Amino acid sequence: MFKNARFFRLDTPFGLEAAELEERLATRRFRPCGPIETATMGWSSPLGEETSALVQAVSGCYLICARKQERLLPSAAVAEALDERIGELEAGEARDVGRAERRRLREQIIHEMLPRAFTRSRRTMLYVDTEAGWMVVDASSEKQAEDVVSLLRETLESLPAKLPDPSKAPATILTSWLLDGTAPDDFVPGDACELRDADDNASVVRCSGQDLGSDEILNHIRAGKRATKLALEWDERLTFTLADDLSLKRLRVGDALLEEMNDTDLEPAARLDAEFAILALQLRQLIVRFDELFGLTGGGEGGA
Asked: In 3D, which of 151, 243, 232 has the Cα closest to residue 185?
């Protein structure tokens, strides 16, 4: 279900029942862009647009979905239209167009072009684990996660959620797992990593399909680079790439956990419930392991 995971710790218990959360989200239900709107964002059904329920509650977790729609207005098209408009004015009136008039013309052109612009939608899934006190967002970037968390905060009027603030530097620990072979038994490094120079963030080595125990990789670490991303398999349950901000990418549930569902003929809603229950339980336990390894105090700023 989730290809990515960004974690947010809830400072206080999430006090809403599923029905109450449904009512709150309905006040900001998604609607398409109007003719002159550049973007809209709201809540849609995690089961798809053919259903209306905005909350899917499973095992103490509330699965919800944010949808953002944007009008695609290429800057190159605006610039070309602006150049043509300016050229016509300067040729027809034998005068130069000043900076302030250029800005006004650009705004006018955008206003004229927006109603004809194509739209693009993006859905972002997230869930609140009311038992563990965490929120998980399927966002590939920090900005995407921030937008969704901000929307939820505005909808609920309060959401004390923070990014994890590890007491032990993840990059230092991941680096030692590679250099010293000290990864715990339940974490197996994969064949991909990102190495960055601690003193020069622009100096980066990205490896994929490589033996991370080879001298070629280890020499980069011995020269001062740190592992800021590392592909891992956890306890044969999940595979993912872990970044030094503790976000996950390329998240995948282990085949063994999904085999039982593949042998049954489940309706789409029942399959989503089952997949979500498996994913949420595994991530709940993974967060516990992260807390043991990195010390997730949850006191970090930003993102919420």
From this structure: 232
**Helices 142-156 + 18-26 axis angle, to 10:** 100
pTM of the model: 0.86
pLDDT along the chain (304 residues), means of 10: 95 94 97 92 90 92 97 89 89 87 90 88 96 96 96 95 94 96 95 89 88 91 94 96 97 84 71 89 96 77 43
**HSE of 152, CA atoms in CB hemisphere, 13 A:** 32
Range list of H helices, the chain? 18-26, 75-93, 99-113, 142-156, 170-180, 215-222, 255-262, 268-294
Alpha-carbon distances of 231 from 51, 191, 194, 216, 278, rounded to whole Å: 36, 7, 9, 17, 21
Count of alpha carbons within 13 angstroms of residue 9, beta-carbon side: 19
**Do 161 and 11 touch, CB atoms closer than 8 A?**
yes
Any residues with CB less than 8 A from the CB of 171 and at least 6 apart, and which?
Answer: 226, 227, 228, 244
- Phi/psi for 81 (5° steps) reads -65, -35
Name the one residue in this structure whose structure tokens are 């905005």: 54
Distance of alpha carbon 66 from alpha carbon 58, whole angstroms: 18
pLDDT on residue 300: 44
Rounded to whole angstroms, the Cα distance separating 22 from 44 reads: 11
DSSP result, 194-245: EEEESS-TT-EEEEES--TTSHHHHHHHHTTEEEEEEEEEETTTEEEEEETT
